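ok so I'm stuck.
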Amino acid sequence: MIVQTYKNMLQAKSVIRECAEFATRRGQEIGYENVFDYSLGNPSVPVPDAFTEHTIRLLETQESNQLHGYSPSVGLPSFRTKVAESLNRRFDMNYTAAHIFPTSGAAGALAHAIRCVAEAGDEILTFAPFFPEYNPYVNLTGAVLKVVPADTETFQINFEEFEEMLNEKTAAVLINTPNNPSGIVYSAETLKRLADILTQRAAAYGHDIFLISDEPYREIIFDRAEAPYVSKFYKNTLSCYSYSKSLSLPGERIGYVAVNPECTDAELLVPIMAQISRGIGHNCPTSLIMRGVEDVVDLTSDMSVYETNMNLLYDKLTELGFTVVRPGGTFYIFPKALEDDAKVFCKKALKYDLVLVPSDSFGVSGYFRMAYCIDTEKVVRSLDALERFVETEYPDR
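replied:
not stuck anymore, here's the structure
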């Protein structure tokens, strides 16, 4: 008999994917260039030339079995070493290759990190607004995802609610900074307070509470700022990373878990992740892509377009009377809708070929997400549509 859990999931498709599918259908009718599709967070800038050149050179000069053969269950030593050295150089850490576990993107990293530290019946806390796929990522392991309500004034952590929900069943806390969907970057003050609370509660409960840090947007930061490196604040941190955004390689599925060297049982966690792979049918990413990335781990694509797009949208949204917390990074903005029901709001926007994602699945009602990883020319053209939508549908705003 087919498992009912997955049959039920067919009836609860991702609202983000549904919006993207609408945009595709509408594009077939009027030309996709005329659809202002803010649904999917799919990087829109090219990969660095250095990655392409290095990968071509590998294909031309290396033995086939080296490039396309199986890699060790814990990943290629050279890739792990290069990642550790880069993190140490950039964030003053003390990683070695033994602390790095290559994965199929950040989703693969989260799959391993969650299973390392939580089992059936345990609770994992996360903070609204949050990426909706955290629900299956956590709940299908047998652990239970609990969502701390949002602080909608700043989208930093709602500490009062967090301390109320933290309990002896809490095995881990899952954070995402810079954040999808709000674009907010957790401040050093926020991370220090979070670390202090976790340290105190872990001592009180007599067991570790791990911090799982989902960091695929770590390099997309605005105003020449830097995102605080989460592992600097709390020793029991597992950093989950992907090159999908920094190198614009989402389809290559390449990322890693970095185990804080001061973590409990730090020397065991990467070998444990290799064993987890046996149970979930995942093994490390392709040898070719690991070798291609390891030579460019300190590079990024030219992501300046995202800040340009953010400023255009933020200025227009505030001009039109929206309440919106200015993003500190990512390629998302998360304004408050002009009516309580975000689904109704976003449905009205479709009449103007504006594809916006309602906020309900992100754990907050009454907001909407715009993924502005699109050409700036299209963002500029969308501003007129946004203004017509607001002035026509909400003249008394």
